[in-house]
Design goal:
With about 260 residues, the protein is an alpha/beta fold. It has a domain of about 160 residues: 3-Layer(aba) Sandwich (Rossmann fold). About 30% of the residues lie in helices and about 25% in strands. The protein has seven helices and eleven strands. The strands form three sheets. It has a seven-stranded mixed beta sheet with strand order 5-4-3-6-8-9-10. The chain is globular, with a radius of gyration of 19 Å. The protein binds S-adenosyl-L-homocysteine. The site of S-adenosyl-L-homocysteine (SAH) has 25 residues, from strand 2, helix 5 and strand 4. The site of S-adenosyl-L-homocysteine has 25 residues, from strand 2, helix 5 and strand 4.
């Protein structure tokens, strides 16, 4: 299925799938400007990045990563034309890929980790992502971190992320099937931990597996009964916690399914 997915934007199926495989289409067609689907998607992505900038995302590392990763390659073929809208989209099994603005915002926050203060060019070290979903955010994280460990509890999505990421041959992205509530001790300590699912509170395991100088960015239940983004820094003086804006993430659940 994943290998059959049409390129963005969808044209005639025959030409789009031929173009995806990098071969000449069987039926000749008159190219329009931009001339290839990947150029078209780059232009749409550039517009998405402009909008992110207008919304206040300013870290060049994040903007570069957001313009590099082809979000349309991670969503269902029926949703490809919405891939660069600022909206969350269904990815199956009741889960959603986060909005680009939320992905960018959370990664920008992650890059604000104390260890990177005053180092606007540097990458993060090892990062743990809870909730691989379709693998999109893991691909974005790969641009800003030296190593990405990403855990998903639903086998179907874990497999799907594998398929989605396979063409990129990312040696520094490690996908695991497991319960992210207990983190992933083998990769610890992490320079950053980012959650794409929201629970009651940030699990102690994440705090234990965070390096000094590292930062956790996660949605958690807020006092008002909704969800809010929380940022936790591990400093030599202890933990520093900041509650930010309201967000809407799928629930963090324990166990594998
Ligand atoms: N980052 C993803 C967003 C996926 S939505 C993307 O780019 O597509 C959040 C995901 O978190 C869901 O797939 C859900 O199954 C997963 N999840 C929820 N609780 C989890 C847990 N305890 N461990 C691992 N994954 C979890």
């Amino acid at each position: 299925m994943a290998t059959q997915r049409p390129s963005f934007p969808v044209r005639l199926t025959s030409t789009a799938s031929a173009a995806t495989r990098g071969r000449m289409p069987a039926v000749p067609f008159k190219p329009m400007v931009p001339t290839t689907p990947s150029m078209a998607s780059a232009a749409v992505r550039a517009r998405m990045v402009q909008k992110l900038t207008a919304q206040g995302v300013s870290d060049p590392r994040v903007l570069r990563a957001m313009s590099a990763v082809e979000r349309h390659g991670f969503v269902d073929s029926a949703l490809v034309n919405q891939a660069y809208e600022d909206t969350s989209l269904p990815i199956g099994l009741g889960q959603t890929i986060s909005k680009p603005s939320v992905v960018a915002r959370m990664i920008e926050l992650l890059l604000g980790a104390p260890a990177l203060a005053g180092k606007p060019q540097d990458k993060l070290g090892r990062v743990l992502e809870i909730g691989t979903g379709c693998g999109y955010q893991a691909a974005v994280l790969n641009h800003v971190a030296s190593e990405v460990y990403s855990i998903e509890r639903l086998r179907g999505l874990h497999e799907r992320a594998r398929l989605n990421l396979r063409p990129f041959r990312l040696a520094t992205v490690h996908l695991m099937l497991g319960d992210g509530m207990i983190g992933y001790a083998k990769g610890a300590p992490y320079a950053g931990i980012i959650a794409a699912a929201g629970g009651e509170a940030v699990p102690q395991a994440w705090i234990d597996q965070l390096a000094v100088g590292g930062r956790i960015v996660a949605p958690t239940h807020s006092a008002s009964g909704g969800q809010a983004l929380v940022v936790i820094d591990k400093t030599p003086r202890g933990l520093e916690r900041l509650i930010l804006e309201a967000v809407h993430f799928v629930p963090l659940k324990s166990g594998i399914a």
